[in-house]
Amino acid sequence: MRLVTYNVEWFASLFDDEDQLLLDGGRSGRHGVNRETQVRALAQVFQQLDADGIMIIEAPDTNRHRKTVQALQLFATEAGLRTNKAEIGYANDTQQEIAFLYDPKVLTAVHAPIESAEAPRFDNVFHIDLDIDAKKDAVRFSKPPLELTVTTRSGREVSLIGAHLKSKAPHGAKSDDHAVSLSIANRRKQLAQAIWLRRRVEQLLADGRDVIVMGDLNDGPGLDQYEQLFNRSSVEIVMEQDLYDPNAHSLLQPRLRVMPSSARFYSSESKRYFSALLDYIMVSSRLRQPSQNWRIWHPFEDAICYENTDLREALLMASDHFPVSLDLDLE
Question: What residues does 108 pair with on adjacent strands?
């Protein structure tokens, strides 16, 4: 079984209010890429992935006019994908939903949220002292994680969580000092969300469940200077000792020469591109197998992607993130 996490930049901008694809030359959410180009690039990438289940981060939105499930299923039909059934959890108001697109002939996926005293439902409020002032702060997810029970044809059940944690970027900063304070505040909130997510993982593991956490965590070990203020990254908090992602673990190794990355952004200030590892698939111990294959479909770092010119260009046009896949034996 192949599972994928893929952050699709502003997928919502490719649909009208009737959830129909906009195959025209209008502006997409990607800089310098029109809607038709992005749609066709995404179709090609999804076809090449040939996944059984795809956790889509920044999926089309659900609101008074639009429906995420309808939009994704229409996209799957137009692109000729076998992953033609979609599931979402709690809708949000950011135009960036978390959704799971899957092949119903291979598995079933059901939104199965749980809660506990230590970890409330992800559409609720989490109370935690973020700044050690003996006063608890109220934390919310702007994009509540998607909790699924995935069942294979053989009856194997897995708890699958799709997550998109708070960005640390100081958007809206009015000065250098303001940027620093925003970055620290955003990291505090991101760490609180990671702790909340980690408590849910612990609850599932205590119940004897196999767990997979996948998505865009907007963080990684050693990713920025603010991590030193808080000792650990969000990724390390979510993983602890009982979840595993080889890309995340590789960043914890000393003197790593080649840094894996799953996203590529352009800096208008420096006129350069920079890369970061933000997207992960973490699995619990019983799901780790010798034959597993984690793969970041990076057009410049994955040799097969680079040598396939059409796929390489499609990956660059489709999103500022690249898919991460994992092949699992879940029969």
Answer: 151
Tokens coding 29: 């959410």
Alpha carbons 190 and 164: distance in angstroms, whole number: 10
Give CA–CA dist 286/204, Å, rounded.
13
| C-alpha dist (Å) from residue 266 to 21, 139, 170 | 27, 30, 16
Q: Domain 2-327, what fold? A: Deoxyribonuclease I; Chain A (3.60.10)
Does the pLDDT of residue 133 top 80, yes or no?
no
Residue 278: alpha-carbon gap to chain centroid: 8
22-51: pLDDT as tens digits: 999 999 999 999 999 999 999 999 999 999
Name the pLDDT band for 87 (thresholds 50, 70, 90).
Answer: very high
Closest to 57 measured CA to CA, from 22, 115, 101, 107: 101
Residue range 83-104: average pLDDT?
97
3-state class of 93 per DSSP? coil
| Residue 185, C-beta contacts closer than 8 angstroms, at least 6 positions apart | none
What sign results for the dihedral spanned by CA atoms 238, 241, 247, 249? positive
Contact call for residues 99 and 144 (beta carbons, < 8 A): no
Read off the pLDDT of residues 210-269 as tens digits, 9 standing for 90 and up: 999 999 998 876 555 555 555 688 999 999 999 999 999 888 876 556 789 999 998 888
Single-letter amino acid code for the residue at 254: P
CB of 253 within 8 A of CB of 270? no
Whole-angstrom distance, CA of residue 221 vs CA of residue 50: 30
Which of 234, 236, 260, 241 has its CA nearest to residue 202?
241
- DSSP class of residue 41 equals H
The full set of domain ranges for the chain reads 2-327
Q: Which of the listed ranges 86-95, 186-195, 231-240 does the model predict with the highest average pLDDT?
A: 86-95
